[in-house]
Amino acid sequence: MDIYVDSANLKEIEAAKELGLADGVTTNPTLIAKEGGSMREILGKIAKTVSGPVHAEVLNLEYAAILKEGRELAKIADNIVVKIPMLRDGLRAAKAFYEEGIPTNITLIFSPAQAILAAKAGATYVCPFLGRLDDIGHDGLLLLSQIRSILDANPDLETKIIAASIRTPGHMIELSQMGIDILTAPSKVLQQMEKHPLTDQGIAAFIEDAKKFSA
Ligand code: G3P
């Protein structure tokens, strides 16, 4: 299982890397906008910071423009993965990139049917959004388990699952149990995973007791 940082912030990515939690990085236009500055520059720095895949999303939505932009993004660094929204032109572009040997991520997947199309188009990764489904009263984890079953039942589909829109440590646990290939989590969730009140209480008690004897 790989864990990626869902962030375009270098400090967050470096902090996760120190704990072995930056097997890769996913970005999107919203995350890039939070950092400000040039997208190309931000991606270049991230791609130097981590050795694993760095997912860079195209801003264009029409076939020829996606191809042009994706090829440009792929030139930024060897570890760039071209991230493309789930739409028909995006699927066509993923197929063309597959033939060119450029890795792709089809993102904004909200149904198993969309995941099947992305896998058949040759996407290297499919990226279902868990939390946003929960937000509208659907079951995000069910979607992840359905996609896991489909890919397990059809080993000819070589795409990997990246679970995104992860909101809680509980999501991380459930997704790990399902054998999801990659979990991309915001830095906040990675930090929350460290915490347990009994750990804090235990440390405080040990510190107190340690005052009662000499080393
Ligand atoms: O990579 C994008 C995805 O993780 C978005 O998460 O929390 O905005 O739904 P969220």
Automatic annotation (TrEMBL):
Q: Which InterPro entries match?
A: Aldolase_TIM, TAL/FSA, Transaldolase_3B/F6P_aldolase, Transaldolase_AS, TSA/FSA_arc/bac
Give compartment(s).
Answer: Cytoplasm
Give GO MF terms, alphabetically: aldehyde-lyase activity
Keywords associated with the record: Cytoplasm, Schiff base
Gene Ontology biological-process entries: carbohydrate metabolic process; ketone catabolic process
**The keyword RNA-binding is annotated on this UniProt entry:** no
Q: Which GO terms describe its cellular component?
A: cytoplasm
UniProt name for this protein: Fructose-6-phosphate aldolase
- Specify the species: Candidatus Lambdaproteobacteria bacterium RIFOXYD2_FULL_50_16
Q: What is the lineage of its organism?
A: Bacteria, Pseudomonadati, Pseudomonadota, Candidatus Lambdaproteobacteria
